[in-house]
Amino acid sequence: MHSGTFLKSTPLLDDTFFENTEVFITEHNEKGAMGFVVNIPFLRRFNELEEFKHSAPFPMYDGGPVDREHLFFLHQRPDLIKGGTPVTGNICLGGDFREAVRLINNKTLTEMDIKLFIGYCGWNDQELEAEIEEGSWEIVKEGNVFISK
């Protein structure tokens, strides 16, 4: 498995945080894996967070159960947002957050360009592979971070 892989939860994960989720893996190495749930909208919009109350009412997604005090973002505009970590193709993780917010607020960036997440998913070394082997996750051949199903 590698960065840019999509995983879909199986019924083995029903009644857990991951029930009916699709995860996009952004990092996979000898330390483990990191990714984001891309298909579960967060209950509040960006401008409903106190710190960003003057921002656009942009949707956010429930990225995962880890580090839910922080915002993360994926985007496919490395030409506009500097400092992101390439994941696959033109999709990047993070970068200049202030610039991303400015571009969201002036409507340069749309939901087809950037996705905001509360929290992320994380696995220790070989943990995700074990979950795939036990049948908790299916590898999805094609997926799209920026199109919600």
From TrEMBL:
User: What is any one of the record's Gene Ontology cellular component terms?
Assistant: cytosol
**Which Gene3D superfamilies does the UniProt record give?**
VC0467-like
Pfam families cross-referenced by the UniProt entry: DUF179
Please report which protein family the annotation says this sequence is part of: Belongs to the UPF0301 (AlgH) family.
Annotated protein name in UniProt: Putative transcriptional regulator
Q: Which organism is it from?
A: Pseudobacter ginsenosidimutans
